[in-house]
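Q: Focus on the chain.
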Amino acid sequence: MDHSLKRAETSFIPSNIKARILFQCYLLALGVTLMVLSIIAYFSLTENLIYIRNIVENWNTLPIKLIRQTWGDCLQNEEYVNHYIWPGIEQGCDCRDGDQYIAPRRILFRRTDTLFKKECNDTMRDAGCEDIDEMGSRDFKRLPVQFGNQKLSLCVQREQGNNSFALNSPKENECKENELKCGTISDYFFCTKENECPIFQMHNNSNVESGTQDYFQTLRENDYTLPLVEFKIAQGDGVCRKVNERSISQGRSDYGLISDPGVDCERDPRFKLIYKFDEYKFFQANDALDIAKEALGYEISSEYEWGLYGRHYINFTLSCREYQQEFIDSVDILEEIGIKQLVLMIISIICLALFFTLFLLNCQTMKGVDLPCIKGKGTQESNTLFCIQAGIKETFQLIQAIIAIISFSAVNSQINFYTKLIDEGCSDVVTLDDIQNVRDMLEKKIYKYNLAYIAMFFIGAGIDLIVGFLLLKSYYEERKKLASIRNQEKQQEWRQNNIQSNPEQEIFKQENLNPQFNNFQDPPNFYPQQQQNIGTEYVQQYPQFNYQQEQQQNYQNQPIQNQQFNQYPIQN
């Protein structure tokens, strides 16, 4: 008898510990892999989507019909050209080396030359650290001019209506009726519904020979450019290629408590320099020199240069204008893909959290801990956890596979569309490089990762089915063997109980099991009434004495159920 099965049934420790640990490691590795893939795909998409959105926002901007220079503020229907938002600083504690740091008290606070992003405590203050209060963002709306200490603002008025490049770009070499054609060069002319062309160029008069008294000069003639529509103030050598980033001068580190730190980013050559000025005069013109006094260590220096930059409409060649609306719509498609990738990421994180929780529970069962929330113990308990894990895994991964399959068509169509734009050279080199970045991201980070999702789903489902089948087979074989062992034990126990209670009857039964079927010489008479009419010749042939004696002997040896037929022996 296999007693190991009985021990496994009642044991708190499940069988096949190594196989179960291996399966748990497989689930965790799968969960981590899917989560990492989903996070990379989602953040890659959101990081690169800004390139396409930046182009579309440029096209949706209305052209400028007037730029006004003023020493005061802009009017309600105008907007500032030179608007810069200083981001502000966070609450901090300045414990850097300096005159305020008390050297003998370093025993109280040993951290030196550090700017903490938190409020100072009493120990820090006793050691010479100083609090830096939080400061909100500020609007810089003045530009310093090179003569005197004067400052001015640049105010623009834009055209009204549906006259943006996105909605009214010419699809052929001529403008529509009742529209003014601005420019003659193919790919670089603009059609407007206004009485005059929009502003195409803007220069600083200190760099341009002109008899005008205005500090800046605007031109409505184009020279291989489209209308001027965007303005940015940036530190250093230009505007960041990702327009949501703040540029900083090369080799300079930003203030530690600044809310939005600047980066030495890749510059966008499509933004052209209009006017350059130094940092000290810029802060002075906007009454912001107090920042350096309130925020200890904040540097405002005339060594660093800032500049006003402008960008025209990003060109889309005339031969590709038929694709322009599709390109604009691609932003919405990419955002929908981004939502699907976000759902995949959230599901992956939830799955990994559940897998880790069930992994800990499985570790408890492997140590022999009986989980009160799950029926059974040992192997049965571990098998139940496996079924729960497999159910969670298949459910969530099926959802992920469906989402990935749905995304395939949209992702593939965008890859093909952007490839066509690149192959046909639909824009300038910088813009085509932006499109190339998005296309590569879709192909390498979204398409291939989603393909890996689907492959892992089917491979994982196959592994789960194999493991589940083996577990079920092993489980039913153990059940079958245990049932056989129990039946044998019950029969043996029943026999032992009978022998102990009636030993003589058991011996009698063993010795007298149907003896009449072992002796066929004298079969019993089942019809005694017919023997009364036996003739004399038969009686003489078979003597009465011997016959009755044999009948009596047979009657005693017959089973009980047959004795009722021999109640009347044959008489003379």
Observations:
- DSSP finds twelve helices and 16 strands in the chain.
- The two ends are 64 Å apart (CA to CA).
- The chain has a mean pLDDT of 79.
